[in-house]
Predict the structure.
Amino acid sequence: MSVSEERSWTAAVRKRAVGALPPDKLLPDKQPSYVASWIYVFGVLSLSSLAVIILSGTILALKGPGWWHFTGVGHFFNSIHLWSVELFFFVMVIHLWGKYFMAAWRGGRKAVWITGSITFLVAIPCALTGYVSQQNFDAQWISTQAKDAMNAAGIGSFFNLLNFGQMYSYHILLLPAAVVAIVIGHILLVRKHGVVPPFKVPAATSQASRDGAGPEAEESAS
């Protein structure tokens, strides 16, 4: 390696990145057999619904409220955006609870669990700002009712639900960018540490199940 390469910050970043996440981990061509279980599908469904949210939301942002309220195609994309959000939260909750009962923080994976939980928490205000950005009576009702909660929490002056411009900026830029950034970090951590395996079955229990001799069989034999 030349002196210029040793002093190059790009070479240092590349070396550190490859050391932390080698290409075979970043883009693996094999997965353990237990990944075929249905509980592992909900993470992929969360990513798929997030992609639909971003795509449909981009179209809505480009067209504006007049389009999504008063045209048939606008109603269609508005409905796609709404139901993809509903699906996102539904499958993400199942994903979080499934990983909670699997103790997904095992094996040095606590950062994976933390980033997944933070993604859910950041997605909640992202959805709230979407509801109050609809520009209809539903949005007015939600914003006027929720502002009291924000004021009681002491953040009403910084997070004003009655300010459409602020809420719209949060909804289409700041909060989605935060969600996407955390999700990317979450995926990279999963690639680095691997998918959490199921709990190991004790050898005695697995042997008894293979022999067909459970506790009831032992009692009857005695």
About this structure: The first helix runs from residue 3 to 7. The CA atoms of residues 14 and 68 lie 45 Å apart. Residues 214-222 have pLDDT under 50 and may be disordered.
